[in-house]
Design goal:
This protein has 1 helix and 11 strands, in the order βββββββββββα. It has about 160 residues and is mainly β. Strands 3-4-5-11-6-9 form a 6-stranded antiparallel sheet, with no helix packed on it. The model has no long low-confidence stretch (mean pLDDT about 85).
């Protein structure tokens, strides 16, 4: 199930219009998950013109947002019986808002885990984590990732740990 993306813009006279209505252009399939790359910004604030200048998503397998920017993606997590697997533990230098749209997924942290269900929202603050669908139904989440920085104390604590790009 591919995500439909509707992009708004402006006509030459300033009226609001739809400049694009189509499935997301970049979909990545990984073991156990399908990533719909919906949109990204390369900087904040993002310059708003009549229409986007370039396609703001990439087919490249980048997890975190661009430096100074953001990304939104929708991920379908398959259940184990349908080829789903636990994601690798990973950390990005970003603040991520994860919204469970359908199904059930487990958020796995260094020393704990919790089950998330439709309607739950996770505020992921640069912590090491993984995802796993342990149910027998597919799960769907939307993620908004915004570039961030680690303060000096946290940077010292996690020094030497790998960041996921």
């Amino acid at each position: 199930m591919t995500t439909r993306r509707i992009v708004t813009g402006h006509a030459g006279d300033g009226r609001s219009i739809i400049v694009q209505d189509a499935p997301v252009p970049h979909v990545r399939t990984l073991p156990g998950a399908v990533f719909d790359e919906v949109w990204s910004t390369g900087q904040a604030p993002d310059p708003l013109g009549l229409a986007p200048l370039d396609e703001p998503t990439s087919a490249q397998p980048v997890i975190g947002p661009p430096a100074g920017g953001s990304v939104i993606r929708v991920i379908d997590f398959l259940p184990a019986g349908a080829g789903g697997v636990r994601s690798p533990m990973h950390r990005t230098r970003s603040i991520d808002y994860g919204i469970v749209l359908a199904g059930e997924v487990v958020l796995i942290l260094s020393d704990s885990e919790t089950v998330l269900r439709a309607g739950d929202v996770v505020v992921q603050r640069g912590t090491d984590h993984a995802w796993e669908n342990r149910s027998d139904q597919p799960a769907r989440m939307a993620f908004v990732l915004i570039d961030a920085t680690f303060d000096t104390d946290l940077e010292t604590l996690i020094a030497g740990q790998e960041l996921t790009p």
